[in-house]
Amino acid sequence: MSVFFYNAPAITFDLTGLGNLVEMPMLYRVLHNTVRNVINGILVLPNRISITLSPEADFFETFVQPCGFMQYTCVRGAAFQSVKTLGIADVPDIYVRTRIGTHQFETSTCHNSCDPVWEITDDGSTSDEFLLYDSHQMIYLEVLEDDRFRNYMIGRIEVPCRELIDHHEMTLPCKRGRIVDGPSSESTITVRGNIFTLSNDRQFFDAPPSGCINIDGDEYCVSKHALLVALVDHTGPVPNMNLSAQCYLEVSVECAAPQSSKVVKVVPEEETSWKCEFLFNCVRSDIVWSKSITISLMQLAKGSKEKDPSRDLCLGSTSTSWDHLKGCTDMTFAEAHTELHGGHQDGNPIMRSKLMLFSAFKMQTSGT
């Protein structure tokens, strides 16, 4: 069983006693954001809690596959109000913060404009792509004033992803924030959205990133992004492991850019199992098909409290090339872990891992 939220939950709380001291606006905001970030980091997709109800349950089958990549662009705003300070009109410096699930994106600041326009630039300052798990997920926009001392909220917007995907472009009214005068319907933000569907079809990997490909008379546009998924399931005790020393999993991804890695620390216990999920949003142009992806179970060096790959003990690892994953739907390395010290225990693998690679596309024109 997996427990998760599609959208970040709304959190409210009321402190009593000495806790009332924390309810001053600045302190309350910091506490609220901290609680929200902790919950999002545990329960909002792609984060989830997996609970094993049966010994036969397969952790790999609980993976929630995203619908695809949502391509999102903040285009322009209109009719925001100047604020008078001591009789002098202060024209706002506006930027937009967008949240969906655990993902957050901010535009650049458009200075001194009540009708901001964010031009599409090579650095991606107005456009973003993020993983979408369900079309009913909500997009939350916060329109903010970039002030020298403090950023003020001008307005808020909520829109379901489904509506933005269906309309491709929407002009949305802002709900009034703290510093906007006049009717809330006057101020608007225009956004665009498209969905790129995930596929493991090798033909889409052979297409150039951000290019087009013709398959059976249908024209497809291919995203510049690809999704790499690594699932790791620890199913038994690891020989020669010092239970008093902390262990961690490391997934290292080699590409044209400098090698990147994502690390999750876990503390395996003798009779329990732990399960980890890694998702990498890869830029297609950075993938070198001959390079490798490596999953390692590491243990901190004796007396150490910080990771140091040059000193830490590798209890076992497995790797494969990008090219091996291209077009594969089910890569399982249960038998590849014979390198682990002591091999298998009681005929069972100590750790299983599964890698999946997806490209993303959208149909441009249909030949039918």
Write up what this structure looks like.
This protein has helices spanning 25-43, 161-167, 202-206, 322-325; strands spanning 2-3, 49-50, 68-78, 83-85, 88-90, 94-100, 103-106, 127-132, 138-145, 152-160, 169-173, 175-176, 188-199, 212-215, 218-234, 247-253, 260-266, 275-283, 292-299, 313-321, 331-332, 351-365. Strands 3, 8, 11, 13, 14, 15, 18, 21 and 22 form a nine-stranded antiparallel beta sheet that branches. Strands 7-6-9-10-12 form a five-stranded antiparallel beta sheet. It is globular and about 70 Å long. Residues 178-185, 268-272 and 332-347 have low confidence and may be disordered. It has 368 residues and is mainly beta.
Short summary:
The protein is built from four helices and 22 strands.
Q: Keywords, please?
A:
single chain, 368 residues, mainly beta, five-stranded antiparallel beta sheet
Helices and strands in order:
Layout: E1 2-3, H1 25-43, E2 49-50, E3 68-78, E4 83-85, E5 88-90, E6 94-100, E7 103-106, E8 127-132, E9 138-145, E10 152-160, H2 161-167, E11 169-173, E12 175-176, E13 188-199, H3 202-206, E14 212-215, E15 218-234, E16 247-253, E17 260-266, E18 275-283, E19 292-299, E20 313-321, H4 322-325, E21 331-332, E22 351-365
Antiparallel strand pairs: 1-2, 3-8, 3-13, 4-5, 6-7, 6-9, 9-10, 10-12, 11-13, 13-22, 14-15, 15-18, 15-22, 16-17, 16-19, 19-20, 21-22
